[in-house]
Amino acid sequence: LMSDKYAVVGNPIDHTKSPLIHLSFAKETGQNIDYAAIEAPIGGFSEVVDKFRREGGLGLNITAPFKLDAFAYCTDLKERARLAGAVNAMKFEVDRVTGENFDGVGLTNDITRNLGRLMKGRRVALLGAGGAARGVVLPFLEQGPTELVIVNRTVTKAEELGRQFKQYGPITAIGYSALADKKLGRFDLVVNATSASLRGELPPISPEVFGDDCLAYELLYGKGLTPFLRLARNAGVKRLADGVGMLVEQAAEAFVWWRGLRPDTGTTIKKLTVPLE
Ligand code: NDP
């Protein structure tokens, strides 16, 4: 019996945890699936997807740097993908290719369910306005924060995001110097959605952004204490998290979309968690 075929596409792809996550979901829910990791050459995304579909593939997860290529490839877009301008999961049917984006809902599920933090009535700071941040803005606003402050090095990109989503909730878009100048006060949740940590860099924020009982969330995962998490810890922040929960939760959403069954995420998150101390 042939198994249903799924895969993750990225470049590089050697460190991906997606096959492990999906195969553990499949085992737990009794599903017979095949899940591969495919490295597409830069500029060669659509050829790789064409081939995967010809071979009977049913769905893909998409990681950096192909989320915009995936967006362009789809014939149908779910609202979250359309608004994010990026696709992180695809479903293939005979006559159509549907694109979804589960990054934002994965992050909010991790924050609200696994970490037990309400965003309703809280002040939230989102650092970064790149691919990951774009997918996070709407799911954050849907949680009902009193204010969402988007901070980005290239201020125009933050402002663009702010304009695009302003009808969905209270957004302020600024740069780092304005964050320091304007005395915007302390935040209940500070999310680092920049890629600074990948190069051991720190977005220029002061320890004063972290409020009492703040949660500091780093999207990068598996790297232990990043400069951002270290700053938060040194500022006295007790709740630190990295993006492993987000990764597993977005995978779970894709699994439900493809297979119609919801896997348990707790055991998989535990298996992949690298201690932050
Ligand atoms: P992008 O390249 O699309 O965006 C990068 C962002 O980081 C931009 O806003 C950029 O600002 C900012 N930035 C980069 N370096 C610095 C710096 N030194 N100081 C301040 N800002 C900086 O990246 P992605 O959005 O795709 O990814 C961001 C992070 O999220 C990565 O670490 C990635 O690993 C992680 N991620 C985690 C996921 C998970 O499931 N846990 C899912 C997706 C991403 P500017 O616009 O000015 O260039």
From TrEMBL:
<feature type="binding site">
    <location>
        <position position="88"/>
    </location>
    <ligand>
        <name>shikimate</name>
    </ligand>
</feature>
<feature type="binding site">
    <location>
        <position position="221"/>
    </location>
    <ligand>
        <name>shikimate</name>
    </ligand>
</feature>
<dbReference type="InterPro" id="IPR022893">
    <property type="entry name" value="Shikimate_DH_fam"/>
</dbReference>
<comment type="similarity">
    <text>Belongs to the shikimate dehydrogenase family.</text>
</comment>
<dbReference type="GO" id="GO:0004764">
    <property type="term" value="F:shikimate 3-dehydrogenase (NADP+) activity"/>
</dbReference>
<dbReference type="Pfam" id="PF18317">
    <property type="entry name" value="SDH_C"/>
</dbReference>
<feature type="domain" description="Quinate/shikimate 5-dehydrogenase/glutamyl-tRNA reductase">
    <location>
        <begin position="118"/>
        <end position="197"/>
    </location>
</feature>
<keyword id="KW-0028">Amino-acid biosynthesis</keyword>
<feature type="binding site">
    <location>
        <begin position="128"/>
        <end position="132"/>
    </location>
    <ligand>
        <name>NADP(+)</name>
    </ligand>
</feature>
<feature type="domain" description="Shikimate dehydrogenase substrate binding N-terminal">
    <location>
        <begin position="8"/>
        <end position="89"/>
    </location>
</feature>
<feature type="domain" description="SDH C-terminal">
    <location>
        <begin position="243"/>
        <end position="270"/>
    </location>
</feature>
<dbReference type="InterPro" id="IPR013708">
    <property type="entry name" value="Shikimate_DH-bd_N"/>
</dbReference>
<dbReference type="InterPro" id="IPR036291">
    <property type="entry name" value="NAD(P)-bd_dom_sf"/>
</dbReference>
<dbReference type="GO" id="GO:0009073">
    <property type="term" value="P:aromatic amino acid family biosynthetic process"/>
</dbReference>
<dbReference type="Pfam" id="PF08501">
    <property type="entry name" value="Shikimate_dh_N"/>
</dbReference>
<feature type="binding site">
    <location>
        <position position="103"/>
    </location>
    <ligand>
        <name>shikimate</name>
    </ligand>
</feature>
<dbReference type="Pfam" id="PF01488">
    <property type="entry name" value="Shikimate_DH"/>
</dbReference>
<comment type="subunit">
    <text>Homodimer.</text>
</comment>
<feature type="binding site">
    <location>
        <begin position="16"/>
        <end position="18"/>
    </location>
    <ligand>
        <name>shikimate</name>
    </ligand>
</feature>
<dbReference type="GO" id="GO:0050661">
    <property type="term" value="F:NADP binding"/>
</dbReference>
<feature type="binding site">
    <location>
        <position position="79"/>
    </location>
    <ligand>
        <name>NADP(+)</name>
    </ligand>
</feature>
<feature type="binding site">
    <location>
        <position position="219"/>
    </location>
    <ligand>
        <name>NADP(+)</name>
    </ligand>
</feature>
<dbReference type="InterPro" id="IPR041121">
    <property type="entry name" value="SDH_C"/>
</dbReference>
<dbReference type="GO" id="GO:0009423">
    <property type="term" value="P:chorismate biosynthetic process"/>
</dbReference>
<dbReference type="GO" id="GO:0019632">
    <property type="term" value="P:shikimate metabolic process"/>
</dbReference>
<protein>
    <recommendedName>
        <fullName>Shikimate dehydrogenase (NADP(+))</fullName>
        <ecNumber>1.1.1.25</ecNumber>
    </recommendedName>
</protein>
<feature type="active site" description="Proton acceptor">
    <location>
        <position position="67"/>
    </location>
</feature>
<feature type="binding site">
    <location>
        <position position="243"/>
    </location>
    <ligand>
        <name>NADP(+)</name>
    </ligand>
</feature>
<comment type="pathway">
    <text>Metabolic intermediate biosynthesis; chorismate biosynthesis; chorismate from D-erythrose 4-phosphate and phosphoenolpyruvate: step 4/7.</text>
</comment>
<feature type="binding site">
    <location>
        <begin position="152"/>
        <end position="157"/>
    </location>
    <ligand>
        <name>NADP(+)</name>
    </ligand>
</feature>
<dbReference type="InterPro" id="IPR011342">
    <property type="entry name" value="Shikimate_DH"/>
</dbReference>
<keyword id="KW-0521">NADP</keyword>
<dbReference type="GO" id="GO:0008652">
    <property type="term" value="P:amino acid biosynthetic process"/>
</dbReference>
<dbReference type="InterPro" id="IPR046346">
    <property type="entry name" value="Aminoacid_DH-like_N_sf"/>
</dbReference>
<keyword id="KW-0057">Aromatic amino acid biosynthesis</keyword>
<comment type="function">
    <text>Involved in the biosynthesis of the chorismate, which leads to the biosynthesis of aromatic amino acids. Catalyzes the reversible NADPH linked reduction of 3-dehydroshikimate (DHSA) to yield shikimate (SA).</text>
</comment>
<feature type="binding site">
    <location>
        <position position="63"/>
    </location>
    <ligand>
        <name>shikimate</name>
    </ligand>
</feature>
<dbReference type="InterPro" id="IPR006151">
    <property type="entry name" value="Shikm_DH/Glu-tRNA_Rdtase"/>
</dbReference>
<keyword id="KW-0560">Oxidoreductase</keyword>
<dbReference type="GO" id="GO:0005829">
    <property type="term" value="C:cytosol"/>
</dbReference>
<feature type="binding site">
    <location>
        <position position="250"/>
    </location>
    <ligand>
        <name>shikimate</name>
    </ligand>
</feature>
